Amino acid sequence: MSSNLYPHLLSPGRIGTMETKNRIAVTAMGVSLSEDDGTVGEQLIAYHEEQARGGAGLIICGVAGVAWPVGAVAMQQTAISDDRFIPGLRALTDRVHAHGAKIATQLHHGGFVAGYSFNRWGHKLWGPAVPPAPKGSFIDYFLMEELQALAGMKMPELKVLEQADIDLAVQQFAQGARRAKEAGFDGIEIHGGHGYLLSSFTSPYTNTRTDQYGGSVENRLRLTLEVIAAIRAEVGREFPLWIKLDSQEVGKPGGITLDMAKEHARLVEAAGVDAITITSYHDTSVGKLHSQSNIPHLENWNLPATAEIRKVVSIPVIGSGRIEVDSAESAIAKGETDFVAMGRKLLADPHLPRKLTTGETEKVRPCVYCYTCVSAIYMGQPTRCAVNANLAHEFEGDAPAANGNARHVAVIGGGPGGMESARRLSALGHKVTLIEKSDRLGGTLRFASLAYEPNERLLEWLRREVKEADIDVRLSTVATPELLRELGVKTVIVATGAIRDMPPIPGNDQDHVYSGDDMRRMMLGESSDDLKRKTGLFTRLATKVGAATGATANLALVRKATHAWMPLADTVTIIGGELVGLELAEFLSERGRIVNVIEEAPRMGKGLTLVRRMRLMAELAEHGVGLHAGATTIAIGKDSVTFTDAAGQPQTVPAGNVIVAKGARGDLTLADSLRIAGFDVHPIGDANGVSYIEGAMHGARAAVRAIREMA
User: Fold this and answer.
1) Count of CB atoms within 10 A of residue 493's CB?
2) How many C-alpha atoms does 660 have within 13 Å on its Cβ side?
3) 660 and 514 in contact (C-beta within 8 Å)?
4) How far is CA 182 from the centre of its chain?
5) How does the average pLDDT of the chain come out, rounded?
6) CA-CA distance, 278 to 192, in Å (whole number)?
7) 186 burial class (0-12, 13-18, 19+ CB within 10 angstroms)?
8) Could you tell me which residues are beta bridge partners of residue 410?
9) Vertex 328, ends 322 and 331: CA angle to 5°?
């Protein structure tokens, strides 16, 4: 079955002499999946091969270091700085070509951003001049345990380049290009953005030189133009070559602007590139900006600039930056971009292009923009994905079908971990019974979807996957040993989630104090004895009507309705500053409440990935939410909460309502009892300790693989 929904996005494209089967490119990303010595091994090959199998027209393999280990920005970065790296690169291109995709490499030198190179090998950071002092301190957003992981890192030393250094860098790019061509790549992208070496020369913010490489636009771009010329001399005029350029530098006064970027685009076109990838960058010292440029939180962030640059060049442009599929189709149709480079979407589902082609748009696993992928890199780890547990594990191979070893497996708990386990088992040919004690699937993901809308996309995807699979779903059912024996089940996955105790906070027994479970039930139309005691008649009636009519099952409707009415006071204090507490603070602040968050730990945001945490905490502060970390002696009064702040000073904040968003812990009671009863038990997700969506999805993969290996 073919799709006519995206005739422009799925049409063939051309960059120079290279033709692609569609206009979807895997954007170049540093994923830290090469070997420690810079060579390409099976882990990176299998990762890109899966993208080729998934139907991408073009794969741009990220950050190949032309001077590696000088200029390296991360562990396990790909190197292209010596001929010894060619065999591994050739193995990669051969495997990708076998699936009909084109593959390019991105030539890269980290320049001022290569702190990893300095801290591991002592190589100074290359750049045009001493840059301005940082304006912020994004390190303030790291948790204490994350800071411990970075202990021992030193402030890098800089190397202001002289002419001999510049000449060497030009030749390193040229020789990297030669190796790329010899390794069988179909094209080359020069990384000319993101604060790396070439970008640092291009930007007036970091380039204050007064020689021929500084001052005018032409002088600041001189290094880039010399690199283009040297590469063309090595690979010839017919070999596809393009460059990634910043359209702006967010938060850098006097940095690259769109008008400058247009002039840069004209100059690189005249120098002989075949296309331009449009991106943007930011002041890395400011936490929020890490999700407001090249990995934006706002949809279609770079598309307006892409469209403007497209007007001033005659070569193709490649748009990037959280471009939704419908927006990609529209932008290509209107001539605002020629290709769309996707990153996070294709990490979440590398088969997105194939599914669009076959008309299976609802089968595309959604990205929830949680920044797990990039935050892992920031913390010196290989990339991973919260919703796609296979990412970076492609080299382990697909799980084989059950065939003659099919089992009947019971999955207890219909949250994300349970649904993911059930759909994976069913896809392998196992018989699956999914048992959920409530009247609908979703678990705590339903409440998480209220506070953070992208989570609902995952919730609906999992529900559809379960509905379309051959799975016996039993709602409003309590799993007991007797039921499992009646079903003939011996193997059980327990995905029942965490339990939530009310911490022993003075004043926690008052009627205006809600637990996290109270809030979840209230918002989703459920009830409990505690909630009946704490809420008025009107609230109870509204909750009943919402549940009876199905209104509270419609999360979009609930989100909209709660802007108009919500049974909470004007002032709300949340005790607990981890993921749930902060997302709830965002939800309530957006609905006009005066919110304070009190947390005992010295830093807030546990459970949020680093990049998402930096953005959310900055936005909460911008919206006036009081953030009080390092609090002690917390006590709940009649209309306020008192505590001692991190500086040892007594504080009081208003609290018409108090929400205690802490006290969750793993619960293996059911798993242990079933194991004692003789069942083969695999507990996953929050049952093992709170690990949120990522823990649920990754736990499901691990449990299914364990069951497969025992079959």
Assistant:
1) 33
2) 24
3) yes
4) 34
5) 94
6) 10
7) buried
8) 433, 492
9) 120
Tell me which residue of 102, 104, 123, 106 sits closest to 114, measured CA to CA: 123
Task: Report cis status (omega within 30 of 0) of the bond before 353.
Answer: no
How far is Cα of residue 599 from the mean position of the Cα atoms in its chain?
26
Distance CA(558)–CA(566), nearest Å, equals: 10
Counting runs of H as helices and runs of E as strands, what totals does the chain give?
26, 27
Ordered strands of the 513-515 beta sheet: 513-515, 657-660, 571-575, 594-598, 626-628
Picking from 137, 288, 144, the residue whose alpha carbon sits closest to that of residue 606 is 144
- CA–CA distance, 659 with 447 (Å, rounded to integer): 14
The dihedrals phi and psi of 246, each to the nearest 5 degrees, come to -75, 130
Inter-residue contact 50 to 366 (CB < 8 Å):
no
pLDDT(647) > 70 = yes
pLDDT the model gives residue 563: 83
Do residues 199 and 281 make contact, with C-beta atoms less than 8 angstroms apart? Answer: yes
The per-residue DSSP string of 229-286 comes to HHHHHHH-TTS-EEEEEEEEEET-TTS--HHHHHHHHHHHHHHT-SEEEEEEEE-TTS
Q: Can you read off the two tokens belonging to residue 512?
A: 């205006």
Q: How confident is the model at residue 562 (pLDDT cuts 50, 70, 90)?
A: confident
For residues 517 and 529, what is the distance between their CA atoms, to the nearest angstrom?
Answer: 12
Structure tokens at 505: 């906070």
Query: Mean of the pLDDT values across residues 544-565?
Result: 68
